[in-house]
Amino acid sequence: MDSAQPRSLSDYLRPHGRRLWQGAGLLIVTNAFDKAIPWLLKDAVDALVAGTLGSVARTAAWVAFLAAAMGFVRTASRTRVFNVGRDVEFELRNELLEHLHRLGPSFFQRVPTGETMSRSINDLAQVRVMVGFGMLNIVNSAVAFGLSLACMLAMSRELTVWAVLPFPLLVLSARVLGKAMFSRSQASQEALGALSTRVQEALAGVRLVRAFGAEREQEELFEEANQNALQKNMALVVIRGFIWPLMIGVASLGTLLVLYRGTGMVREGTLTVGALVAFLAYVESLKWPTMGLGYIMAVLQRGRASFNRVREILDAQPDVVEVAGASSPKQIGALRVSDLSYQYGDRRVLDHVGFELPAQGSLAIVGRTGSGKSTLGALLARILPTPKGRVFLDGDDVTALRIRELRKTVGYAQQEAFLFSDTIANNIGYALSETSSAQARERIRGAARSAAVLSEIEELPDGFETLVGERGVQLSGGQKQRIALARALLSEPRVLIMDDPLSAVDAKTEARILDALEEAGKDRTMILVTHRVAAAERCDRIIVLDQGRVVEEGRHEELLAKPDGVYASLAARQRLEAELGTL
């Protein structure tokens, strides 16, 4: 099935509409309580001026009650709205991870891992703040402005005009500065992503850095990325720092104008002292939303820029897409490749390749470096976008099969062994739902035995509970490769494709692994992608690739009988290397 189209922010908010409306309603109640207090204060001041102290005490009691009620309702409103932000972040993170699992090599070649991590963590946090804190304060500011202006108009239209005179300047400034805020927010997030990429690469390659004594060069590269991130963030800080005093200045200007004209109206007898005090309180209540408008603007612009960066990942198209109406594999294991060609950009790596492999048969794909062996293996497992009508599993076009079920049926052990930063047991038992039961442990041991790595695991201080470190840094290359092979064997696929699983092992270990693979291949179809003739000769059939074409095909003895062939040339060279190695 084709992946769903990425949703807009409103699509993520729609399921939470009820809570958002409830939060908005509670904000209205909160502000109603808040704006009632200055009105009561007006009567209290006028009563105090008149000397009627009894009414002042009653008013004070009402103010205390409203303040307590306002605190309770304010907490409830924030709980509802803030939680929506967290829920949207949760949904986006799940969708992002699910989509990342569908994306192919073309995306990860274009977007560095550190940049992807930055968007998955930092940018999602900014989206959460925008949805929760940002939306709450937008509603709160709008309600606060509306109610305050209504109360101010009820007291004095003239003073209200004086109070709002500076606000057109605020609107104009917000419009101009908002665009600058958005562009600088986006630049800041991109710089942070580049910095995350630099840190990730430095940590992943720490052994290589030490081996070459390149610590100083890495520090300089980090300093450059760090300095760039600092500059982009400082550019954002500068504009945010400019907005804040501007908002304060606009709000304070309104207060000064009201105080100037209001005292004159008190002297004229057209306004009471209590009304002036209450009016100033309402103007003051406009100050905080006004002052906070710059910060809210920054939150919204940064959140908007972050959401756009997340959307860039969600908009990325997977290399391999499941078609509508896809079916399940038949679980037999027969493969047929017909006139298969493939290219990376303008470079053709496979050229009209074709062969057939019966169920439970074994095939070696042999060739020099760059001949297209690994690409062919990845296309058979549909790790790369296999062309339609070219690869068939049990008579079914692999492009018409459900991807998840196809990957379970056709196991693929890639050349570069990847291990999670976990125990050896959990790495081998990755395909199991749990690895702690006695039955699961026995299967894990059996897979390790088949991959000729059991004895080495048992010799480790913690055995199968040994932590391998990030990407298996605690293990040798051969151990990593065999643990990855054990993981592939444990999944028990009907077809097992192994991409050069013997490249990091010695001749003795190679023989043990090949013996184990022969045993494991008795009830499944096996494809061995290799450049080693000693491994290829154990397969029922061999095809030889050269510059993406099948140039030779047959059994080991048949291909050796062609002295000018590619296979015979590889065999002669490897035999000579083995003889030289014994000297």
Q: How does the SSE layout of this entry go?
A:
Layout lengths: L8 H5 L3 H34 L2 H50 L2 H6 L2 H43 L1 H8 L2 H38 L1 H6 L3 H54 L4 H43 L19 E10 L2 E11 L4 E6 L5 H8 L10 E3 L2 E2 L5 H7 E4 L10 H5 L9 H13 L3 H6 L17 H14 L4 E5 L7 H14 L4 E6 L2 H4 L4 E6 L2 E6 L1 H5 L5 H16 L2
Q: Percent of residues in helical segments?
A: 55-70%
N-to-C SSE series? HHHHHHHHHHEEEHEEHEHHHHEHEHEEHH
CATH class of the largest domain: Mainly Alpha
Low-confidence region ranges = none
Specify the CATH architecture of the largest domain: Up-down Bundle
Give the strand order of the largest sheet, numbering strands 1, 2, ... along the chain. 6-7-8-3-9-10
Largest sheet: 6 strands, mixed
What is the count of helical runs?
20
Give the total of domains.
2
Question: Which fold name is given in CATH as the topology of the largest domain?
Answer: ABC transporter transmembrane region fold
For the secondary structure, the number of strands is 10
The averaged pLDDT comes out at: 82
> CATH superfamily name of the largest domain?
ABC transporter type 1, transmembrane domain
Overall outline = elongated
Distance between the termini: 59 Å
- Structural class assignment: alpha/beta
Describe this structure in words.
The structure is a single chain. The protein has 583 residues and is an alpha/beta fold. It has 2 domains: 9-315, ABC transporter type 1, transmembrane domain (ABC transporter transmembrane region fold), CATH 1.20.1560.10; 335-581, Rossmann fold, CATH 3.40.50.300. Helix content is 65%, strand content 10%. It contains 20 helices and 10 strands. The protein has helices at residues 9-13, 17-50, 53-102, 105-110, 113-155, 157-164, 167-204, 206-211, 215-268, 273-315, 373-380, 403-409, 424-428, 438-450, 454-459, 477-490, 507-520, 533-536, 556-560, 566-581; strands spanning 335-344, 347-357, 362-367, 391-393, 396-397, 410-413, 495-499, 525-530, 541-546, 549-554. A 6-stranded mixed sheet has the order 6-7-8-3-9-10, sandwiched between helices. Strands 2-1-4-5 form a 4-stranded antiparallel sheet, with helices on one face. The protein is elongated and about 120 Å long. The protein starts with 8 loop residues before the first helix and ends with a helix. The model has no long low-confidence stretch (mean pLDDT 82).
